[in-house]
From TrEMBL:
Gene3D superfamilies per record: Aspartate Aminotransferase, domain 1, Type I PLP-dependent aspartate aminotransferase-like (Major domain)
Protein name according to UniProt: Histidinol-phosphate aminotransferase
Chain positions found as N6-(pyridoxal phosphate)lysine: 228
NCBIfam families, A to Z: hisC (TIGR01141)
Membership in a protein family: Belongs to the class-II pyridoxal-phosphate-dependent aminotransferase family. Histidinol-phosphate aminotransferase subfamily.
Gene name of the encoded protein: hisC
Superkingdom to which the source organism belongs: Archaea
Length: 381
């Protein structure tokens, strides 16, 4: 017996970890700094860490009460009903739920290129087809309604990423509203705001609720995560905020108890830990500014907790930086083989990354103006 034909599927490749790289290079892990996966340099919310320790003795029970409590806390944060909050095993779990609720076999999903590979992966898992709209490097990866509408062809779901990974660009809410008005009634716009805390932008939740001068819409959903600003990537906790009319669908599409007891307890503690989030966001802003000012190559403006850097031969640059103890993301798999992505670290980590990158660019005699290959295959995120 064999599994179904998976030849159209790509494998997700996460950023390489310190332990993995250290073993490969036969080095001590303490020699390395990892700035490849957009993780929180300050670790988890301290309140969440305490909550996880205190909840450890209760993991023999299913997280029914904790799940309900966290749902209510998230709903209060966004001023929506509990039924509009779909907790999930990370933001990717919420993507799966939306596909389950919307996609019929053969429906198409429109995704950005470059972009987060899991949009397309999840669509294919649910027997949908994937189409792409291009964000142009020549236009500094600008996101607007026209760019999406040029590619749109009645697709069932359209994914928008704001801030966008790996470029850091955002899309104005007015453009999201225009897209919602211009696309078919049965098209869902999914606005992925995984990095939303780092951006000086209002959330697209305003479009669901008819706030800030927008009309309320039933064709927009918003994705959020506890992985980035809250530092809970390891417990896997994300959610979708959906139109009020969708409330009953959650019970029919979610995996039973997908958000674990530890994840829910961590989320309940973290959501009120404003000090940790503010510190994290402040660090990211300072790090972005420092890298834009001091890196000896083009650095795109970013509203995420990372920057995209022109590196010429990204694979060679990333490999050499890794050898020198700084792990960054080669963006060849995004279809950007001339670029690397660097996560915003602490002051010391950021300074080390900049110093290392500048030295590598000089030592390898890399031309940072080398253009990306637009035909490169997008394989992961």
């Amino acid at each position: 017996m064999q599994p179904r034909d998976l030849s159209d599927h790509v494998a997700y490749e996460a950023g390489r970890g310190i332990e993995e790289v250290a073993r490969e290079l036969d080095r001590d892990p303490s020699e390395f700094v990892k700035l490849a996966s957009n993780e929180n340099p300050h670790g988890p919310s301290p309140a969440a860490a305490v909550a996880v320790r205190e909840a450890a003795s209760s993991v023999n029970s299913y997280p029914k009460a904790a799940h309900a409590d966290l749902t209510s806390a998230v709903a209060d944060r966004w001023d929506v009903t509990d039924g509009q909050v779909w907790l999930a095993n990370g933001g990717d779990g919420a993507i799966d739920y939306l596909h389950r609720a919307v996609i019929e076999p053969g429906d198409t999903v429109l995704v950005p290129s470059p972009g987060f590979a899991y949009y397309g992966m999840s669509s294919r898992y649910h027997h949908g087809d994937v189409r792409e709209y291009d964000l142009s490097k020549a236009d500094d990866f600008v996101q607007d309604a026209d760019t999406v509408l040029e590619a749109y062809d009645g697709d069932r779901i359209v994914f928008l990423t704001s801030p966008h990974n790996p470029t850091g660009s955002t899309i104005p809410l007015a453009d999201v509203e225009r897209l919602a008005e211009a696309t078919d009634d049965e098209t869902l716009l999914v606005v992925d705001e995984a990095y939303g805390e780092f951006a000086d932008r209002d959330s697209a939740v305003a479009l669901l609720e008819g706030r800030d001068g927008f009309d309320a819409r039933d064709d927009v959903a918003v994705l959020r995560t506890f992985s980035k600003a809250y530092g809970l990537a390891g417990v896997r906790l994300g959610y979708a905020v959906v139109p009020d009319e969708w409330a009953d669908a959650y019970a029919r599409v979610n995996t039973p108890f997908a958000a674990s007891e530890l994840a829910c307890r961590a989320g309940l503690a973290a959501i009120d830990d404003d000090e940790h989030v503010e510190r994290t966001v402040g660090t990211a802003r300072e790090s972005r500014a420092y890298m834009r000012e001091h890196i000896d190559s083009h650095v795109w403006e970013s509203e995420g907790n990372f920057v995209l850097v022109e590196a010429g031969d990204a694979a060679a640059v990333a490999e050499e930086m890794q050898r020198r103890g700084v792990i960054v993301r080669d963006c060849s798999s995004f279809g950007l083989p001339g670029c690397i992505r660097i996560t915003c670290g602490t002051e010391a980590e950021t300074e080390r990354a900049v110093e290392t990158l500048n030295a590598v660019l000089a030592d390898l005699d890399v031309d940072p103006e080398t253009a990306d290959d637009p035909d490169a295959e997008v394989a992961d995120t």
